[in-house]
């Protein structure tokens, strides 16, 4: 047992923190303003591309991607504190080319993509030139049980023909988004975990109809967006299939472990920022003749928040350690645990921060209201908490 | 002790429920569509005016307003189950001319307005021709302690001159909104509860600048809106003052009791609707080979929701009974209790409903996401829960 | 809706409160001392019999028992506030001959007993001359599902022969306890809710072996006790059977409604006493230079306690109202709800009170530690909370 | 960051687990039986001395005591998983001479004792020949603020004279207990953290009157006990003073860090045992036609318990790491956090286990009821949770 990061990680933390202070926090407002300019929010604000260039120049680029020649060569454990720092600002991850779902999609391409697939899609993603979408969840079926997925991927000659309706295909509303990984049913017999495949679908293919963006708890998440997409007789070359027919679950298992832990790392940063804001507020706000910090339950809230954050962080780090050491499959229990803990913890911390801010807390004048929506959505993203609790219980009952 | 409503109330409940089924629920979507038409959301959708006409015709109009010749002659206790029913739909209260802040403002005018003030503002409000705003909260001060309010109302000759900045002046973004009741400081000496006054300010007065609407947890609440308003040397006739100089607190005390209980009544309806939606969902959605209703914690959630709703409803009814019987001032403890309980209860119930819906729960395809934002905001509206808990504790410690 | 008790009830409340102040609270210590005298705690302290005589003289006797010529002629709703007052002291209910399980057993005899059974057992119970036990729960089976009950009651000639093992047969360790109502299986075919019977078994019958008392969370509950009883070829006359063979469930349904609500009424009194003690403590205890009442979360705890108590009380009263009006069977949902709410509410309130008292709170120098154990046990007594939540959910899902 | 114990620790874990399986668990019942024999529970059961001899022989002795020539040479971090294992049984710690308050008292003597004091008291304690008491808490004052301590320690010639009343002097009812460390006021001026001293008082000194044992939530904790002690003109040689006059706080600071973390380590073991028992139960108990494990909220409880335990364990380990590395003073925040988290976590886990067991859960047929009392008491032991939350908040607000 050893509770300190290596010097390499500490240096990256410092560098990243500096970048956050100098480039990210001061530009959060600019980003929002540029987004709102001109009435169309579905465009990339100029400031984002400028920050990406700066980050790339400083080597703060593609820090995710463990065990790969493509990334920065960090393990999940080493990446964890860095993702946490990025999590402090909603615009940060993209700046460092570390934002979902691109990270997960790049991991899929690194691990399971053919040489040709990598050249065509991985390289521009790694360069931050395009964005991507993971098109999985469907409105008509309970998609947390992915065997329900009903979109079809049917071979016809040298092509696959895709038909179905997806939603919460996050990122597809972004004009920079060029490629989707689509999950669907290709085989209609045999073991139910071997009937699905994943396939690369360029968004400009005929029959791909992005119908609308779906607001999440009031937020459009522009320019990213959560798209509803209709796949209407979409034809792509057979070579676009990932890994092989019926191997869709294999891919999503490989994808989801790191994906979930990245979210969790970021929630810790989000919670730290919320706690910082709260402390700043209550030290400076007077009601009923006293500073808020000297009233009622505020100090209890601060203590509770600190206790919850510390515990969540340690379990996230341990999970990262285990993914590195025994692989995502053997770290399933830990991955499910931090998925649940991360989102619930940040929900509670942000909720208290909002309450400390009074009316300002629900406005968009602080980042808290948006964090609140994000945190709530995370309790459903990548499967509702309850599905993950069931995983934990099942493994526990098996003595694993 | 007697736990049934009178026949008069039961008849109104039935009539109202029928109206909800026939006119309100089927038009929720229409309302939203009309609102989104043409790019400008700051307008009254046609359907609203149509529904108002129908409601008025059926006598479902101004059901609030106890002890007054103006309203329907119901007590608070009689109004409670009706407000609950209205609370089931976010568009319903306005249809019946029972929506905040107009109800509170009308009560102020009924109780404290001069004959002239009533003629000019109360009558059109009662007719549903105009809307109004209660301009109280300020961004710069902790306004839950209203002695902090710093906007000034200074007498100059036959006029009062108003200067200050307000926000969360809900309703002021609505084009039909014509009049504001503004709270400010008129006297700068003496007891701190006798320094503030309330004054009627027509929104078209020179110097009234509605700067922006403030989104609440992602929602703009158009066409209503939560406005930030700058009062810049605004001059109104001295006769616009309500009740008298230094009597602002007297007015807000009178206003807040019923205001809070109306919110609470509606939260119960909101919670009932969320529970209905949840039950409908879990009875029909399959994951992992079983209906949701037969899985995990869902049934516990249903039981918890029912238990919380029932208790909140009973305390709300008792509070209404006490306001009727001993007056708002002597029902302070109950009013503070239900203010806290109502918003927390509905927050929990809606949260569970969202979780049962999965991704759909955070979209705008169900009313749940908006309810979630409303419920959260209510934990701050009319003073944060913690301020009300302090009231309860203080009275309890005094043995009251 | 009407939220006040009748004058008759108010007078009884006053009288009862006076008795509590003058006779009960001052003698709690005496009772404990007499119980501890002489090394044997399994005896009736003298003071109890004295207090019973006084209570009887004042007409504060058998206040429970609605709709019966035997009791005081009160409805459940009228009895509720009186039971609440009794709940403030652990020795009070017995003083007024209103303690479990005698009350439930008397109700069974009133409703289902033959004339002979009433004469023999009901009359001495009504007079407070003997005590009784309800022998239901078994160690080997999950008894919250009473169809599991496996003790046998087999007819042989003019007798029934009883064999089985029971535990938590509360009261059987008391030397004054003379009679048990035993639930067992008499019919081994047919509908599983028609296989059980209930039968009267005098404790001095050959083969009734009270093996031990079972401490509940550290307390022996002497002289009452929670007995483990072996029924070893116990023979009683066939006329001891209650109501008829296979009608055991009919009896327990009739018994449990009022039983549960009595417990719930008393938990409210228990919670009120805990809150009183807590308030008294925090107003007088100084740490870190300030009264406890001015520190941290204490005031929040007071407010939370008040809010929880008020809500639980109202739902208990409504449930009593419904039992009176539509009968226990049609008030199942309410009965299950208050069963859960009452015990959880008092658990929370007492927990906070203990925490406010520091070390003294876990000692026996205050009534809190014992209350804590009682409250916890009540979450299991008459079926675990979860079984009752399932009842609520099931009825809710059926739209009832 | 590294999440595995060293091989040395793993070997000790294995050895200890074996000892638990072979010697401890099977003898829990024997211990209880021997304690109950003969009517006097205030004696050491024979089995305890036998187990101590075996443990000592196997080198499983005095495993606590970091940085000292006296103990096993383990760091706090190394000791943590071992203390966790001991925590699984209420009789285990004493077997390995690792039980409170002896461990803390030995640490005090190791660090602050004179050579003579060590020879006289430390050696027999290390050998497990005698036991000791830490006499700190007083009934009359809020002792979580130790500056309130009012017992006096006054120099008279070559002696100190002690007067005062203490309670919760745990262990003093044990006949093997020979020595007390008493905290009292020796200086009546100057800084309030320099007015108290600690002094060694043999229990057989004239004027030391052990008045009674105080049950904790129903349990007498025999033969250990929680004593109320009157110090009535107790005279001890001046050389019995520890460290020096006015240095009492210095000592208790040094004592409390490890003391608290030991408790927390043990609570993790206690929670693991409770979870084991619960899982065993629900896999084998049928109600309503289904195994408990397939019903309702049980699986959620298992998942929640696992998540809470894992997080608490990691923070405990990190705290141990910090005490080793930067010292207890600089690990104050962590120490306070795990003090709160440990007791609350185990309270929740044990509560769920009890609920799964039904009536058996509150009896003494499983270890759960006693664990429940212990867990609850720990929320007050070494200062109420709220005092520790205040420490966390204060440090957090200072940015530490």
UniProtKB/TrEMBL annotation, chains A, B, C, D:
Keywords attached to this entry: FAD, Flavoprotein, Oxidoreductase
Q: Does the keyword Oxidoreductase apply?
A: yes
Please report the stretch or stretches of sequence annotated as the Acyl-CoA dehydrogenase/oxidase C-terminal domain: 246-394
Alphabetized SUPFAM superfamilies for the sequence: Acyl-CoA dehydrogenase C-terminal domain-like, Acyl-CoA dehydrogenase NM domain-like
Please give the start and end residues of each transmembrane region. none
Cross-referenced InterPro entries, in alphabetical order? Acyl-CoA_dehydrogenase (IPR050741), Acyl-CoA_Oxase/DH_mid-dom (IPR006091), Acyl-CoA_Oxase/DH_mid-dom_sf (IPR046373), AcylCo_DH-like_C (IPR036250), AcylCo_DH/oxidase_C (IPR009075), AcylCoA_DH/ox_N (IPR013786), AcylCoA_DH/ox_N_sf (IPR037069), AcylCoA_DH/oxidase_NM_dom_sf (IPR009100)
Q: Which residues form the Acyl-CoA oxidase/dehydrogenase middle domain?
A: 135-229
Quaternary data: Homodimer.
Designated name of the protein: Acyl-CoA dehydrogenase family protein
> Which species does the entry assign this protein to?
Oceanobacillus longus
């Amino acid at each position: 047992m050893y509770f300190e990061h290596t010097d390499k990680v500490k240096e990256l933390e410092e560098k990243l923190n500096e970048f956050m202070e100098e480039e990210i926090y001061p530009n959060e407002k600019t980003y929002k303003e540029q987004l709102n300019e001109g009435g169309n929010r579905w465009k990339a604000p100029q400031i984002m591309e400028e920050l990406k260039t700066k980050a790339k120049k400083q080597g703060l680029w593609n820090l995710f991607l463990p065990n790969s020649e493509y990334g920065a060569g960090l393990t999940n454990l080493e990446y964890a504190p860095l993702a946490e720092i990025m999590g402090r600002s909603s615009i940060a991850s993209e700046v460092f080319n570390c934002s979902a779902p691109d990270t997960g999609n790049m991991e899929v391409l690194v691990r399971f993509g053919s040489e040709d697939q990598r050249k065509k899609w991985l390289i521009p993603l790694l360069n931050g030139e395009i964005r991507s979408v993971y098109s999985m969840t469907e409105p008509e079926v309970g998609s947390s049980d992915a065997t329900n997925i009903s979109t079809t991927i049917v071979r016809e000659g040298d092509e696959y023909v895709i038909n179905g309706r997806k939603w919460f295909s996050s990122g597809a509303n972004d004009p920079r988004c060029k490629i989707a990984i689509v999950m669907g049913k290709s085989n209609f017999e045999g073991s139910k975990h071997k009937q699905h495949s994943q396939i690369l679908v360029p968004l400009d293919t005929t029959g791909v109809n992005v119908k609308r963006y779906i607001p999440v708890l009031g937020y459009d998440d522009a320019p990213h967006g959560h798209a509803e997409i209709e796949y209407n007789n979409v034809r792509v070359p057979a070579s676009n299939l990932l890994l092989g027919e019926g191997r869709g679950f294999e891919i999503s298992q490989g994808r989801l472990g790191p994906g979930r832990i990245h979210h969790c790392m970021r929630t810790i940063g989000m919670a730290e920022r919320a706690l910082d804001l709260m402390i700043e507020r209550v030290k400076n706000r007077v009601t009923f003749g006293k500073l808020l910090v000297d009233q009622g339950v505020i100090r209890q809230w601060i203590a509770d928040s600190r206790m919850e954050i510390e515990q969540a962080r340690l379990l996230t780090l341990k999970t990262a350690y285990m993914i590195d050491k025994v692989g995502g499959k053997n770290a399933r229990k830990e991955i499910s645990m931090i998925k649940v803990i991360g989102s619930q913890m940040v929900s509670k911390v942000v909720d208290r921060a909002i309450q400390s801010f009074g009316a300002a807390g629900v406005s968009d004048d602080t980042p808290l209201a948006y964090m609140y929506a994000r945190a709530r959505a995370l309790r459903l993203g990548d499967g509702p908490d309850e599905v993950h609790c069931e995983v934990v219980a099942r493994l526990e009952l098996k003595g694993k």
